[in-house]
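This part of the workshop introduces the protein records we will be handling. The structure tokens are whole numbers drawn from a learned vocabulary of backbone shapes. The record below serves as our worked example for the rest of this section.

===
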Amino acid sequence: MTTGQRLDRFEDELADVKQLLGSAARYAESANRGLDRLTAKIDDLTVAASHTQTKIDELTEVQARTQTQINDLTVAASRTQTQLDQLTQVASRLDRDAQASAADFAHRIVELWEEAERDRAKADEDRAKADEDRAFMRGLQTENRRILDYLINRNGGSNLP
């Protein structure tokens, strides 16, 4: 092989190296752009996760308030049961008390019974409302978990920082 051929071959190889270096530089620039986009997406997902956590915290507070309401309703139901027990005692005492007239006895029983029924109906309504609120909260929590799962999956399944 002559010197000219070697020089031509060297120049061809040098051109190939230049082309490979240019291609590598373009690939690196493209990778950097992709990394920048990925970093922006991660930042967006981090903000979204923060908002989701804030919403979860708010929903947890609502759930705590709902639990307090349920506890209050339980106390009211217990109070209603106590009133019903007292009503039963009054009815027994009045039944044994021959000095009370039948009309007064019946009137007092009706009043106490209606009051107990109103209290029971109110407690039932409050309990039903609390159950609805609890179901609504579970639905919101499920939706937030689904959104969070979606966001995590959209990030390629990796955990957010």
The mean pLDDT is 88.
